[in-house]
Specification:
The protein is an all-beta fold. It has no helices and 13 strands. Strands 2, 4, 5, 6, 9, 12 and 13 form a seven-stranded mixed beta sheet that branches. It has a four-stranded antiparallel beta sheet with strand order 1-3-8-7, with no helix packed on it.
């Protein structure tokens, strides 16, 4: 069973920064593309960012482009999400995922594995 464990969430004021980390029990490069998703109370799960397994290609949701940066270190089995210029609307539970891919059927990003998530709260 693949385990993904997130850390780095917390409470921050608007305009502030946080860096989320996600470590896995498996060799990261063997899990394919990795990514971050978020879900706010009462809202649908939302794709945030994805990075290819060698780290050369990235995708971002329009709502976070220019503010968030995803990266990975396969030798450390870790994926990161650096979040700058945070806004109150970024408040959500963020979870990392592995085996991320675009589904032509559902027209959204899907994944094979996910972590439990870490809370990010941005105060105004």
């Amino acid at each position: 069973q693949v385990q993904l464990v997130e850390s780095g969430g917390g409470l921050v004021q608007a305009g502030g920064s946080l860096r989320l980390s996600c470590t896995t029990s498996e060799r990261m490069f063997g899990l394919g593309d990795a990514g971050w998703f978020r879900q706010a109370p009462g809202k649908e799960r939302e794709f945030v960012a994805a990075v290819s397994w060698i780290g050369s290609n990235t995708n971002y949701a329009d709502s976070v482009k220019g503010r968030f940066t995803i990266s990975r270190e396969n030798d450390k089995n870790t994926v990161y999400l650096k979040m700058n210029s945070l806004k109150p609307e970024d408040t959500a539970v963020y979870f990392c995922a592995a085996g991320v891919r675009w589904s032509r059927t559902t027209q959204q990003f899907e994944f094979d594995y996910r972590g439990q998530g870490t809370q990010v709260t941005v105060s105004s």
